[in-house]
UniProtKB/TrEMBL annotation:
HAMAP family: Tyr_tRNA_synth_type1
GO BP field: tyrosyl-tRNA aminoacylation
Family, similarity comment: Belongs to the class-I aminoacyl-tRNA synthetase family. TyrS type 1 subfamily.
Residues binding ATP, per UniProt: K239
Assembly: Homodimer.
Broadest EC class assigned to this enzyme: ligase
Protein name: Tyrosine--tRNA ligase
Keyword terms: Aminoacyl-tRNA synthetase, ATP-binding, Cytoplasm, Ligase, Nucleotide-binding, Protein biosynthesis, RNA-binding
Amino acid sequence: MTTYDSDLLQVLNERGYVHQLTDAEGLDALAVRQTVPGYIGFDATAPSLHVGSLVQIMMLRRLQQTGHKPIVLMGGATTRIGDPTGRDESRKMLSEDTIAENIASIRTVFERVLTFGDGPTDAVMVDNYDWLGSIGYIEMLREVGTHFTINRMLSFDSVKLRLDREQPMTFLEFNYMILQGYDFRHLAQTMGARLQMGGSDQWGNIVNGLELGRRMDGVELFGLTTPLLTTADGGKMGKTASGAVWLNEAQLPSYDFWQFWRNTDDRDVGKFLKLFTDLPLDEIARLEALEGSDINEAKIVLADEVTKLVRGEDAAVSARATAQQTFSGGGKGDDLPTLSVPAEGIRVGAALTELGFTKSNGEAKRKVAEGAVKLEDETISDPGYLIELEEGAELQLSLGKKRHAILTRG
């Protein structure tokens, strides 16, 4: 494995964050000499980021842990446009109020993971609408547009993908890479940012930004991307059968969040412990080496540590206690998701879908037919089964061995 002189690159490398680096030697030397302000951009298309963004959030944490300054860039302006990267269709437009509410909600997770303040290594959160919202169109064309060629812009995968599939890309979206490049230049000018990090799909956008800074201001900037993160079975990280794994409590109960990590594939435990926890590498090596049923110890540690970091200590303790009650003691854990059943009752398929256990009533029917659905300990075989509850009563509805919820009378 490559070794570095700076704590920053050494930690990022040994924990598995590094995929591409524009100038490893130059960044390594800079990180030894001075505090490096570095940033990652996040769009505010929803009130929460999901687990797929957690690698990037943890990179900012590593930046701060090794004595450097994290800058969280919220895309208040670029969210209004939409990043075409990896998309087949245009993103729907959001109102200014919705974007502001999303940014405020997203910030709550960053405040747990990073230390904000006015110090040299304290994190800051900025919104690119503050500068892109006021820049004139002619000014942007004259100062920035001359540094981008259509030939090069058409060569990027994010554009080629849409064109090859004959999916329309608006002129608005085509401008995204120019605005993102300008962000790097602006943050370098105003906050001394020298490093932009992101996922591997952002490599072209990052390179655009550092080249723009070099051409316009003669400043040396650096870029670093993480590998595409997939699970051992080839799935996309953070995607489950029931949808995205959200970081915020309002979008996903802490029990479900904890359980997601507890259900990690044996082959991914070591990788996830390195990426998503602060445990020492020697302890991770010990946990990773566990075999058979003992590997469950490592999965519980993973679930505890990530939930504690993202949701807080109380959420982790409560989620673990609920899991123990549900799986070991045969009880109904306090932290299980709940669904209020109306007086007239609810069909079992509708309950599964409303809880997010299934994506549709059709999928729910298939699960019932497979014998995967239980009410308390009784397997439900009729997809039209009507669940009715008396006042004050509650029942546990289960899909398979890992998805559980409490039904109460509304």
